[in-house]
Amino acid sequence: MRAVVQRVTRASVTVEGVVVGAIERGLVVYLGVGKGDDERDRAYIVDKVVGLRVFEDEQGKMNRSVSDARGAVLVVSQFTLYGDVRSGKRPSFDDAMPPEDAERAYEAFVRAARERGITVATGVFRANMLVETAVDGPVTILLDSRKTF
User: Fold this and answer.
1) 86 falls within a domain
2) Is residue 147 a part of any domain in this protein?
């Protein structure tokens, strides 16, 4: 499982002219699910996202998590994180999990984050989405569960 996480002051997702998810201060998580990803991969990424200390404390150091900062999370499905362009210029998505299974994994990720007490907004799985963000910092973190175990 892969995630690109950005600290934001606000973010929203619009589908067909309708805002379907929005947050103020918090994290945007672009989430990609790969073939073979399982509960262990999801748990790793959820733990990292919820625990990332990327919000400033009173001394101006990145020392607070999204829950410490009373922020929210906007999760956007992003199969293109598995785009492989090592051969040619057109991405291959062979390593991405098939859509039906990936949707279940995405929904499980959202549930797991909410179970941790985080306010979570979402995009719409498989929809063409317009994502608007006000990236703060900029702080952008790349997470990949397969680079850990």
Assistant:
1) yes
2) no
- CA 120 – CA 74 distance, rounded (Å): 6
Let me know: does 131 contact 4? Beta carbons within 8 Å. no
**Is residue 148 one of the residues assigned to a domain?**
no
d(CA 103, CA 95): 15
Q: How many domains does the chain have?
A: 1
Q: What is the DSSP string of the chain?
A: -EEEEEEEEEEEEEETTEEEEEESSEEEEEEE-BTT--HHHHHHHHHHHHH---EE-TTS-EEE-TTTTT-EEEEEE-GGGG-B-SSSSSPB-TTBPPHHHHHHHHHHHHHHHHHTT-EEEE--TTS--EEEEEEEEEEEEEEEGGGT-
Active site residues: 78-80
d(CA 21, CA 43): 23
Widest distance between CA atoms in the chain: 48
pLDDT given at position 147: 87
Return the amino acid letter for 74. Answer: L
pLDDT digits (tens, 9 = 90+) for 87-133: 999 999 999 999 999 999 999 999 999 999 999 999 999 999 999 99
